[in-house]
Structure formats: C-alpha cells, structure tokens
Amino acid sequence: MSYVKIAVVGAAGRMGKRIVNIVNDDNVAVISAAIEGKDSLFLNQDIGEIAGCGKLGVTVSDDFSNVAESDVIIDFTGAKVTLGNLGNYLKAGKPVVIGSTGFEKDEIAKIEGLSEEVPVVFAPNMSLGVNLTFKILEMVAGAIGEDFDIEIIEAHHRMKKDAPSGTAMKMAEIIANKLKRNLDRDAVFCRRGLIGERSEKEIGIQTIRGGDIVGEHTVMFCGAGERLEITHKASSRDTFAKGAVTAAKWVSDKKAGLYSMFDVLGL
What we know:
Blueprint: E1 4-9, H1 14-25, E2 29-35, H2 47-51, E3 60-61, E4 72-75, H3 79-92, E5 96-98, H4 105-115, E6 119-122, H5 128-144, E7 149-156, H6 166-179, H7 183-186, E8 187-188, E9 203-209, E10 215-222, E11 227-234, H8 238-251, E12 257-259, H9 261-265
Parallel strand pairs: 1-2, 1-4, 2-3, 4-5, 5-6, 6-12, 7-9, 8-9
Antiparallel strand pairs: 7-10, 10-11
Helix pairs in contact: 1-8, 3-4, 5-6
C-alpha cells in the first residue's frame, strides 16, 4: 500500500502534537519528518513519544533536508515562523499546508508567491464546520443586503498571540465582499467612550481571550425586531488537526497553485 508521507513543522507544539496523533491513526498517511526550531528542547527525541502516541521512529530535527522523502509538509506554527520558512519550502519543492494565522497583507502576498512554484493550501481555519459556516455567512449576507447591522465576536485561549483571529477576519472578509464593503474603512475593532451612532456600513469585530477556550465565533445580524446569530464552537483542537491532515492528503498530488479549504472540501 502507498502511504502519503507527511512532514510536520512545529511538530512538538500544541497543534503539531495533535496532527501527529491524527496522522498516526490515519489509514493512508504516515509521519515522515518532524521539524522544530534550533532552540527546541525536543530535538533528537522521538516525535511519537512527545505526542503521546508511542514511538514512531521519527526523530525531531531542525534540519529541513529531512523533508526530502516526504510527499507534503504541514506548517501549523505561527506567522513569523511560517514566513521564515518559506524559502525552505520553496527549496524542498513539496506541497505545503499552512494553518498559521496573523499575517499582514504583504505577508500573504509572499505565500501567494510560493504558490506559484509549489501547491499551497492556505486557510485561517481548517475545520469542516467553520468552512461550512463561511458558506452560510456568504448566503446570509447576500440575502439580508444592507438591512442588518453586523457584529463578529470571537473567543480563544489566553495563549493565542494574534487578534482578531484569522477565522474572524475571514468571516468579515466574506461578508464585506458580498456586501461590497471595504474592511480597511468599515471594520471596527473596539468601542469606548462617546462614539456616536453606529455607521450603516461598519462591521464590528470584537475579541475575547481567556482560559483554555479552543475557539468560538459568533456572527450577529441585527435588524429591527429580530436578530440572527450564527455560531461555531470548537471543543477540541482535533477538528483543526483533522482538517490539516485531510488537506495534506488532498494536495499531495496537485499542481502548483493557491488552494483553500473550499477546494479541499469541494464546497
């Protein structure tokens, strides 16, 4: 049987360990390389033992040449680390799944540049439920037109570094595109003091950080006499890890290009 060989960058991190477990339980995928930074305390240790799924015979390394025998790379680290590794991904010439968030527009352009040379799945959220929510939001925004005020509220654990979340920003982008609004002008990220009446076109995006919240997103469409709320709640990081592994298997034989989870899931 031919397996999809997956290299995980950031393998000893919170998401990396969950991805290792999901791949270990998969029938058609195997872990082929585990990459961490030069200062990692986990170098030269077996990634299976670190992830809690038993010895896999794959040692954590900071040497990107170890991905040479892999079919695809999963990067679920963070914007800074991902950007620093783009050159390594180009040199490796392997399909890449990027689940990191917190990128600026010019940084996203660099990922788009990489996709001209290798296949790249780039998504702010890789869960099936969230991507279905994206589709629902597009439909609702198109149906309500300009008649409802729109607010997005997102909540994550206290360790999350970027705000608002990439998922919340993607939700805002989908809604803004459907309503032909400009997020640079119409997005409102906080309110305090005597701010006056709400503008007709603003899209509120509010952030909560606390405890161990995995990820919660609610979009409120507030009209006269009624309010529609669309909510997605994640209770386990496995939803994101499973999506990343699904994306890795899907993109392993694709040609160069920039793909989203809509492509992966056929939405």
